[in-house]
Amino acid sequence: MSTLYKIDLFDFALENTVVKRWIPLYYQYFGLPIGTAPVVLVNHALTGNSQVTGEKGWWKSLIGPGAVIDTDYYTVLAFNIPGNGYEQNPDELIPNYTDFTTKDIARIFWEGLEYLGIQKLFAVIGGSLGGGIAWEMAFLKPTQIRNLIPVATDWKATDWLIANVLVQDKILNNSENPIHDARLHAMLLYRTPLSLNRKFNREQDKIREEYLVEGWLLHHGEKLKNRFRLASYKLMNHLLKTIGESTNCGSFLRFAKETDAAIHLVAVDSDYFFTADQNRETYEILKRVKNNVYYHEIQSIHGHDAFLIEFEQLNGILRDIFITTKQKVK
What we know:
By secondary structure, the chain is of the alpha/beta class. Helices cover 41% and strands 20% of the residues. It has an 8-stranded mixed beta sheet, sandwiched between helices. Strands 4-5 form a two-stranded parallel sheet. This is Alpha/beta fold hydrolase.
């Protein structure tokens, strides 16, 4: 694990006018020192953190020495969403999780970048919630990102997503075992019927007297309960429904005309959370006013979680962006 650094932000006004007197922003960087190489910002998803590479890195198949996102060439930077519980107490930091929006997090990240002396980013990439924050960052500063790469996400939360966030919120606030039980429900959104049917094939554990799929779900519930905090889960779940909350189709089109970023949309054909259809719709809107927009689709039976599973396909998509740039420079 690389060193965990902290930036202190003071008197930060949220979108709802609440002023946070102090926000600690934790981050890690990998690869070349800040200020010496192109910067790639990686935004983590709901239960992720800033450990994006290394032995326990959640995207280590994409990021590292000699990898597609090559830490021998780039500076790879990752912030922790304040309140995600990675080396901080979310109960003290986030007394009211509904105060925050993804736009607030995007503004916090930009303030952190400014503190580090980073004005422009070679790329911003993130999956799911992290991709939604990437969109919000681009809306705030449309000319300061060279490559915008939202993965398994979209620029706005749909009614379907908002509805599922509500169900998760009710479980988190009413269950006797909230993290465990909310995770059971969430896993059914992150995967697909075909994925589970092929994995378990109705097999049973005779000793435990349960179906294997039941044991798998219960295992994931226990696993998250043992490493994640309730205040963090409530916040991260809430943030999902705020993606694009202050952006409508008109302002989205204005952004598309203003930005010079190359936008690479990466969808998953079987995603139930952020569907491929809504990503294709976004692509169709963007390409009316913008030439350097590209649509990529991961083919997988695994649904939303494919962005954490189908590394070979994702590497193939990212190779043209990151390795081609290196070759041009050389």
